[in-house]
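In this section we walk through a basic example: taking a raw amino acid sequence and producing a predicted 3D structure, encoded as discrete structure tokens. The instruction is simple. Fold the sequence below.
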Amino acid sequence: MVIMESWLCGRPVLVHEGCAVTRNFASESNGGLYFGNYFEFEGCTNYILQHKSTAWQMGANGRDYVLRNFDWDVIVDKYKRFFADITGE
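The resulting token sequence is shown next.
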């Protein structure tokens, strides 16, 4: 939830590489960076702070990703298709 909310505010995210789900979100959306240890976290933080236009673009990419995949209307349509597939309608 926090990742999605950050993206909706146009902010890039940093996620731990040990979490496959959030790592995939960051990678698939190009909305943030992932790290595996303190030194990588420090490097990612410094990169975002020193490359403001890239950070801004990552935040925008994340926002687009949320709206394309998790907007309320998108979720409702996914459920409708799911239940239609199950019931054969």
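Looking at the output, two observations stand out. The chain has five helices and two strands. Residues 2-87 form one domain. In the next section we compare this with other chains.
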